[in-house]
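For the sake of transparency, this paper describes our internal protein records without simplification. An entry from our holdings is shown next, in its original layout:
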Amino acid sequence: MKTVPCSRRRLGRMGLFSRKKKNDRDSKKDEAAPDEPVAGAQSPDAPDAAGDGTSEAAPEHPDAANASADEAPSVNISMTSFQGLGSTGGEAAPAQEREPAPTEQPAARPPLPGAPAAPPTQVETVPGLRDNALVRDALAALPEKPTGAQVMGVIRQMLQGHLYLRVQGDARKTLSEGGQVTFGVAKAGDKDYMMVFSSGAALRDAVKADGDTQTSAVAQPTPALVRHLLSGTFAGIIVDNYSNQRRAVLPREIVEKAFDQADSELRLKSLLAQPRDADTPGKISEVLAQKPPVWVAVGEVNNDAEESEQKKFGIAEARLADGTRLLQVFSHPLEVVALGRPEKAMPLAVDKIAKMLKDHPQLGGLLIDPAGPLMTLTRDELAPVIAIAE
């Protein structure tokens, strides 16, 4: 077993961590002992990312061997994974004019792993530390030797929420005093990798593996972590390095490409990842009315036509059991890839979606991210969006 040396990287005042004044904090919580292995620190930029309290994750076997990056599911993922997603072809036919597509079409690329229609309801594996449940579950589903598509599925689920950094000492106390913190960096040869964690269980695995109880955990929004990754010379990210099969090495280039195409605030996907309540449809509709970047799936609808004929394109729809037609909308091009269908992702402004809904009352609403977690919105629930076209 090849052990990856782990070093510590100092974080300067680069805006990665938000600091509160001492008098804004609970004095009892600021006095948490620094030798508690995993301390959850809630980030103001990631609401509900972690509890305000301190949760122990004591190592059961302090002498456990250090994890190796060579053992992690590292897959050579070429940039061609992202080629062909954009579509600049002919005009897409309005939804009601779309001709039926052939019933049998070969998939242009392997599908990415799907997810249940509803987001996970188990959001903590260590009390007080809120997991990024989608990333946690995507890692848990990886086989011993994952394919490139399966690792891309992990990146798809990273496009929301928060991840944890494991830092030296008591992060809450250090930050409240205006100090600097250091976080773990894995070295593989001459390359450095950021180490991040998806859950309380993954942090507990880390303490169990190296026996270092003088650490704590800081939750950070995933976009902030990626920005820090790209501002430095890191070769990529290792997620849950100490969790045996349930970990992944994500190359810098692929992470950068995925986040370049994403909404900078990951608003839509973040809402879809949260446990549902009666207000969820309204919240998603309000976010759509803010006009985040979204995509539709576009494919040819006259594949049997002569070569001389002009190609026609249609936008993918879905039909409910009662026949209701729903326009399929996606929060990121990877959500289209996840379906494994031959359509390509095409960006479409929310203004145009609003106009389609207004002009075509036979459209019953939207189906967002059908690869899961998904959400269907009725015309009534989409009133703030339709109002854009009025």
